[in-house]
Input
Amino acid sequence: MSDPTTLLNLELPGIPRLKSGKVREVFDLGDRLLFVATDRISAFDCIMPNGIPRKGEVLTQISHFWFDLTESWLPNHRLARAGDPLPEALRPHAAALEGRSMIVCKARPLAIECVVRGYLAGSGWKEYKSSRTVCGIALPAGLQESSELPEPIFTPATKAETGHDENIPFERAREIVGADIAEQARELSLKLYAFARDHARKRGIIIADTKFEFGILDGKLILIDEVLTPDSSRFWPADAYQAGRGQPSYDKQFVRDYLETLSWDKTPPAPALPGDVVRRTQAKYLEAYERLTGRKL
Output
């Protein structure tokens, strides 16, 4: 059973919903947007029927944390800080929105995902084994699963409404968004990853890879969406790291491990998660927040 405080679905009467994703709901406030991170969790591209209590708070508050640290040199879409009061129209919904919502400006999102990889994992490891490349970028011989790369690499992807994003060469990204914007996005992504990687390392977390979103506002590139969370990044505990194998993670590991024990065919409807899996997964999300920020949520 899910915790009764878990937010899975949200209706805001009188406020139009623009988009409903696997986790996030986006509402139109006229000249602004309201992003709300629910407690939904997905695995194998299926949303589980029960969620992870407070997961949406973790995602939103980690994003606020990184925005606070970087906005002096990297503009973002945030219009209200974590502790700012809600606009009057949203106050009747304060209980549902508390801690998990963010008011942002309307920017035009780039049509690419900006992925940075610092370690060899996931689809990058699969490609490296077959061709010694990742997204067409040649890498040294002799790397293992989870090896740290000689330097982080920018590996853009197309955006998929359903299913998985598709890795593309940088030249293709230049064609999609324009050469100047693609170059800026690559430079900012690598700078932001290096900043976050160094911060997280001091706090016992390895950021193996991450996905950034950028948008255009008044002709300039800004950081949008969630940033450097366990849902948009691969977080590993530094004290358990060992190259040559897969690593324990801070996100959906317990969920995926449990689902792999079932005879479920990984198509909807997904099975409910047992309480133990929910509790252990929640603990990892909360631990990621506490380690990164040095604060309790």
About this structure: The first strand starts at residue 17 and ends at 20. The chain is about 30% helix and 25% strand. The chain has a mean pLDDT of 95. The helical segments are 55-70, 94-97, 122-131, 170-177, 179-202, 253-260, 275-293.
